[in-house]
Amino acid sequence: MNVIFSKLFKADLLREKAKYAEVSERLASAFHERVSGQTREIIKWKGGDHTGPHGFPCRSLKPFPHYVYYKVEADTIYFLGLVHHQRHPDHLKKRLKDN
Question: pTM higher than 0.70 for the full model?
């Protein structure tokens, strides 16, 4: 299984981690670990069956209010982005279209 992290995903991770770091380095570290854990699970199970409100497969980052969005094509998993759960459903589609 090939794994590709998009530029959007990487930028989202850095941005959200920085926001949490403003509150606490420990919180930022917990967020990063939660993202890492969910990406490992997605890779382990070669995706999943939950489609989120933005139209792509996703995993929740509970207790953090974000989703990890990805898509699976053939033998490749593309990590598309991290999206706050209150964002409009077209948010991720618009960002992917613009890039």
Answer: yes
